[in-house]
Structure formats: structure tokens, C-alpha cells
Design brief:
single chain, alpha/beta, 5-stranded parallel β-sheet
């Protein structure tokens, strides 16, 4: 760089993807140290700009390496924001902040002067100072700016600000994958840091989900029986006992066990949204058993109740008593098998009931029992599927009592 031999590329790149890839490389070391490491990418960051991806990655890796060295515990956060510079350019603001040892005042002053030093200022020969001096040279090549703030014992923050041309729309579209469509999927996001939970929720909302951050346990009453509970970078997988919906994890490679319905390998919101879409789409194999949107809905709508009551009225009078008694026996057996945790018997009974209902042209109820059979085959006899099935059994009995009277 001092000799002027380094030149910059100018090719399309995805800033979101670039930062998340850098974070992923440092994640194993952070996990080993017990340090929470994550990226916060604002939803306003453009999907495509033109620049030198390799040199930008070098800058990010140097900052992350130094932060990791000075942070024995706590967190390291890489924030990426953007604002329009003009119609053809965007200004990216990258901040790497940590809760580590911080930088003493004399060393901080020397470091700040390094970022402002002229091009012929000599580079240090080794250590973290070399990484930061290299970043200063690279930033100068990019006509970018680096600022540092720190206080001993309270951590440090490095901010890189640079303006890059926007990639033409066709090029940007080709550089990134198609945006996932979550189509109203309800997701409750938990993580060890409120900023991470809020950022992932914002991205999931951007793709059509209904996402909201939640904290700790017990969960709020409104979140306990439906939707997806997503734990991100939590120290360990933990399905709350009161949660009856689908339980998913992200960025937790050790998460395992029957309690986890869906395990996603990364905390990148784009990858999370893509995994949720694949898991929620019938006929598409995801990384784990598919999620039926909100794990099937047991509560009947007024319209579906009217349809079912109308179909029950079509059963000939001399068969109504036999039908009611047979259904009562089968639904009682379903409840008992659920209580015993016998998933094989539960699915067999659901299949039997589905067949009987179809034979008697009870299509509304048949579709509901078939949906529950599918959910249990895919997700297992989880607390969520048990609760939903119990509600369906109770509602079916109430409808039969109302329409099929002696």
C-alpha cells in the first residue's frame, strides 16, 4: 500500500451478505469464549452496491479480530446502516463496538492520529496496531473515514463511513437471492440482547411475517399457544413449559432434541427468513420438519362451524346416534392416547376418523382432522399439537351435541 501497488476493485456486492459472512467466520471463537457476537443490519441498507468486497472484508476482519482480543466476556456488535448520498450513491456506516477492556487515553490518542496520519506515515510492524493501521490505509484508498471512541474498562467503538455507487438494479437482483415471503407467519423472537431480537423481528416483518421480540420466561399469555418461538444465539436451547406452538432455534449448533421443531444454523435474518419460508411451505423440504403455519389452528371460525353443522344435518336420522357414539369413542381414545404420549396410536386414530368422516361426506371436519394428522406426522406429539388436538376434540363433541340430539 505504501508503494501504491494496491488498487481497488469495483464490482457489485451485497453489504448484508458480506458482513454476515465475516461474522460467521468469527462466531466459533466467540462461542468458545462465551462472547455474544452478532450483526445488526438495518433494513434500509441497499441490496447491491459497487466496491471492493475483499478489502471491505479485510477491514471488518481486522476490527473483529482486535475486538475479540480485547473482549474476554460480554458482547461484540457489528452495526451496518445506510443513508442516501445522492440518486446514484449510498453512504454506508459500519460500527464495530465491544464491551471489552477499552483503550487507555494515551493509546487512544496515538490510535486516532494513526487514522488521520498522511499516507507516508510508517506502519507498525506487528500486533493489533498493525491491523488498525492497515485499516487506516485501506480506508484512505476508498476515500472513507474511520473514527474511534473508547474508555478504559468500558469497551471501544470503531466507525467506518464510506460512500459507494449503487449497483444497477438488474445486477443487484442477480447478486442476491429472491426475498422470502412469510405470508403472515407469527414469530416470537428471543435472544440474549434486545437489539438483536428487535433487528431480526424487523427483517421478518419486512418479508411479511408478524414478528415481535419477547424476553425471558414466563412468556406473555398471548404468545403461549400458537405461532413460532424463535430462540437466537441463546446460551442453550430451552422450550418454555408453557409454550404450545412450534419451537425453533437459530445460530445454536448444539441445539438438539425432540423439543426443537426447527434448527437453523445461522443468526443471519435473511437466512432465518428463508429457512422459515421453506419450513412453512407444503411440499418443500426444509432443514427440519416442515412447519404448518402456526402449527394448525384448532379454533373453528364462525363460517367453518356453520359449514360443519350444515353437513352434520345431512346424516340420515337412523345413523345419527351410531355416528355420534362412534365419534365419541374415537375422540375419547384420541384424548387418552395424547395423554399417554402415544404418537403412533394418535395418528392411526386420526386417520381412522378422517376416513369415517369422508365416507359420510363430513368434509369440513374431515379436513380439520387430516390437518392435525399431518401436523403430528411432521412435528411429532409436541405440546402444541397436543393442545390443538385437544381443542379440536372438544369443539367436535360440542358441535355433535348441538346438532345430533336424541
Amino acid at each position: 500500500m505504501d508503494s501504491g501497488a494496491v488498487s481497488l476493485a469495483n464490482a457489485p456486492l451485497d453489504p448484508h451478505r458480506l458482513l454476515q459472512d465475516c461474522i460467521a467466520e468469527h462466531q466459533p471463537q466467540a462461542r468458545q469464549k462465551g462472547v455474544l457476537l452478532f450483526a445488526h443490519v438495518d433494513i434500509a441498507v441497499p441490496p447491491g452496491v459497487k466496491g471492493d468486497a475483499t478489502r471491505l472484508q479485510q477491514i471488518i476482519h481486522n476490527f473483529l479480530h482486535n475486538a475479540m482480543q480485547l473482549t474476554p466476556a460480554g458482547h461484540i456488535i457489528a452495526r451496518l446502516h445506510a443513508r442516501p448520498a445522492d440518486t446514484d450513491h449510498a453512504t454506508l456506516v459500519l460500527q464495530i463496538s465491544d464491551s471489552g477492556a477499552g483503550i487507555p487515553p494515551d493509546a487512544l490518542q496515538e490510535l486516532a492520529s494513526t487514522f488521520q496520519a498522511p499516507a507516508d506515515h510508517p506502519l507498525p510492524v506487528h500486533g493489533s496496531s498493525l491491523n488498525l493501521a492497515v485499516n487506516a490505509r485501506l480506508a484512505r484508498l476508498m476515500q472513507a473515514d474511520i473514527r474511534v471512541t473508547s474508555e478504559a474498562g468500558l469497551g471501544s467503538s470503531f466507525v467506518l463511513t464510506l460512500t459507494l455507487p449503487l449497483a444497477p438494479a438488474p445486477t443487484a437482483a442477480a447478486a442476491i437471492r429472491a426475498a422470502p415471503i412469510l405470508d403472515g407467519l407469527q414469530v416470537f423472537v428471543r435472544s440474549p440482547h434486545a437489539e438483536l431480537s428487535a433487528n431480526i423481528s424487523a427483517w421478518l416483518d419486512k418479508f411479511g411475517a408478524q414478528a415481535r421480540p419477547v424476553q425471558g420466561t414466563p412468556l406473555p399469555e398471548a404468545t403461549r399457544s400458537h405461532g413460532i418461538l424463535l430462540d437466537v444465539l441463546m446460551p442453550r436451547a430451552h422450550r418454555p413449559a408453557e409454550f404450545a406452538g412450534t419451537y425453533a432455534t437459530a445460530g445454536m449448533p448444539d441445539a438438539a432434541g425432540a423439543a426443537v421443531n426447527l434448527s437453523l444454523p445461522t443468526a443471519d435474518p435473511m437466512a432465518i427468513a428463508d429457512g422459515l419460508q421453506r419450513a412453512a411451505t407444503p411440499g418443500v423440504d426444509g432443514p427440519a420438519p416442515r412447519i404448518l403455519a402456526t402449527t394448525t389452528t384448532a379454533t373453528l371460525t364462525p363460517d367453518s362451524q356453520k359449514t360443519i353443522l350444515s353437513e352434520l344435518s345431512l346424516i340420515p336420522g337412523n345413523y345419527q346416534s351410531l355416528f355420534r357414539d362412534t365419534m365419541s369413542e374415537d375422540t375419547l381414545a384420541l384424548s387418552q392416547a395424547c395423554t399417554a404420549g402415544d404418537a403412533t396410536r394418535v395418528t392411526w386414530l386420526l386417520h381412522r376418523v378422517h376416513g369415517i368422516l369422508l365416507a359420510l361426506r363430513q368434509n369440513g371436519l374431515a379436513q380439520l382432522f387430516q390437518a392435525h394428522e399431518t401436523a403430528i406426522r411432521q412435528l411429532g406429539l409436541t405440546p402444541g399439537t397436543r393442545t390443538n388436538l385437544g381443542s379440536l376434540v372438544a369443539e367436535t363433541q360440542a358441535l355433535m351435541d348441538e346438532r345430533l340430539k336424541d
